[in-house]
Amino acid sequence: MARVSRTQTNVIKKQVNEWRVAIYIRLSRDDGNIESYSVKNQREMLLDYVDRYGEDMEIVDIYIDDGFTGTDSDRDAFQRMLDDLKRKRANCVIIKDLSRLSRNYVEAGHYIEMLFPILDVRFICLDPELDSFKHPETVNSMMIAMLNVFNEDFCRQTSAKVRKVFDLKRQKGEFIGGFAPYGYQKDPKNKNKLLVDDEAADVVRNIFQWFMDGMSKYGICQKLNRLGVLCPSLYKKSKGQQYKNPHSNDNPVWSARTIDSILHNQSYIGDMVQGRYRIKSYKIHTQICVPADDWFIVEGTHEPIVSEEVFDTVQNLLKRDTRVAPKQDKLYLFSGFMRCADCDRAMRHQTVRGKHTYYLCRTYKDRGKELCTKHTIREDNLYLAVLTAIQQQVAIAVSMADMVSEINKAPTIKRDSRRLEDAIESKQNELNKIKRYKTNLFGSLQDGDITKEEFRDMKAEFDKKSESLQESIAVLEKEYQRSICGVNEKNQFLAHFMKYQNITELNREILAKLIENIYVQENGNIVIRFRFADEYRLAAEFIENNERLLA
User: Fold this and answer.
1) What is the pTM of this model?
2) Kind of pairing, strands 377-378 and 338-340?
3) Beta strands 347-352 and 356-361: pairing type?
4) Helix count (H) and strand count (E) of the chain?
5) Which distant-in-sequence residues (6+ apart) come within 8 Å of 314 by Cβ?
6) DSSP-assigned letters across all residues of 320-379
């Protein structure tokens, strides 16, 4: 009897046994509208192959990943197929072409050359024609490696093209996200436009107002959860959206992180803010944060939910170092505003024997009197002093507003504007002359009319005169702008302080709108740094320069 080799024995054994087939199908957006890549056509082609050539084949399952990229293996059906291969439920994989298996050439090579042979899995590809059992030499050829490289490069090019298209849409202020920010919904007629979702928008407005009223982020969470208000992820699901938050658990509720995100979101004043995150690469889909300077921000693209004034007030409060009162949901009234006048650290809130409440230097409290002293002040005295100071500033604003109004009525203002216009025009004509002289100077050098040394001296002189004229024009233009615009009720100092002409009590919203910081000195005196100091100086200078018109 003729001797049969081990290789021949293995072949005969495989021919006798049935091949338990796993048909794998994948489709992604990267494939565009190529008809042959559709799930239906892939299925028909693969089933037809088994019908024609699979006498010894039995289909175990058809694994379909619809809408999954091929740049990584994080695909539900693909992972399920790998598990079945490892459990020996299937021992043969059939695909339409190599790009269906993977568009990552490293991973594709790993499966074809390493994992499948280790698991004794037969690998069949229809295009190009590959069969690791009948023609094992074709699987390990250089051509297959090159095809895998080309398949990956297709993804790289597609990713770059898609990114350019998305960036263009972002620059135009078109919304391209999968889900609208909480408080908005996509316009059914234009998916790139946002419309206010009234139900969620009311919650957003409440969140901003509660925070201005002194409620902490944690306190807001507790209140929303007690009221049974659905958190953003559950709310979107309740509206039929297939929303999934990778950071949430199985029973999501409102969190301080969510509240913080809403309070920082510039979209709520009507600006389109996009590009805050990006994936590491077309192969690594992990999201990373993008620096704020690189975001795409287009103003006024949709209806605002909160006003700019409210948003700015909240941003001012968010910057402050704050602490929540023990067993309370609200912040202390002056929390985040108090600072030591000497070491510039925040002041600490402390109640003595359950009676009087004080603010004292945190450095002194935490590190001892060697580094700083108490700088203490009682809270009730502080409250009265700050309220009085604000009332005084309001009185100043009212008085200045009256004077500004009288000045703006004077016809002399218009005459001054014309005088400044003439002065600017005269200086600009001089500057244009010097520019022409400099141009002719270079021609004179080329013609040999002047030497290089004369050229350098004359050019330096012209540059000096040009710089002087530009500085004069800048000063005149600044003065001109002041003369034509003057100072009016839109001046930030006047506008903000005059709103509180009848102020009788304080809250955190008022403090955030009017005060930067309150400094406590060692003797207990306070120095208040008000907001809009530049606008105050502008109004004061305007009045001082035009006092003659008030006579």
Assistant:
1) 0.65
2) unpaired
3) antiparallel
4) 20, 17
5) 208, 211, 212, 263, 512
6) S---BPTT-SBB-TTTTTEEETTT-PBEEEEEETTTEEEEEEHHHHHH-TTT-----EEH
Burial of residue 399, with CB atoms counted within 10 A of its CB: 0-12 exposed, 13-18 middle, 19 or more buried: exposed
Output the six-digit token pair for 332: 């202390």
Range in 170-174, 263-267, 290-294, 322-326 the model is least confident about = 322-326
pLDDT above 90 as % of the chain: 44
**Cα–Cα dist 319/211, whole Å:** 13
Check if the beta carbon of residue 296 is closer than 8 Å to that of residue 275. Answer: yes
- In the structure encoding, which two tokens stand for residue 167, read together? 């960036």
Q: What per-residue confidence (pLDDT) applies to 265?
A: 94
Residue 263 vs residues 206, 258, 315, 407: alpha-carbon distances, Å: 11, 9, 8, 41
CA dist., res. 307 & res. 53, Å (int): 69
Provide DSSP, 61-86. Answer: EEEEEET--SSSS--HHHHHHHHHHH
C-alpha dist (Å) from residue 274 to 158, 171, 266, 382, 531: 21, 9, 10, 43, 30
The C-alpha atoms of residue 525 and residue 341 are separated, in whole angstroms, by 10
CA distance 428 to 466: 10
Amino acid identity at 17 = N
C-alpha span between 103 and 138 (Å, rounded) = 19
Do 261 and 245 contact (CB within 8 A), yes or no? no
Most confident by average pLDDT, 27-36, 142-151, 245-254, 430-439: 142-151
Tracing tokens 């202390």 back to the chain, one arrives at: 332
- The tens digit of pLDDT for each residue in 86-97 reads 999 999 999 999
3-class DSSP assignment, residue 527 = strand
Bridge partners of residue 215, in order along the sequence: 330
Beta-bridge partners for 26: 65
Scan for tokens 């996009």, then name that residue.
274
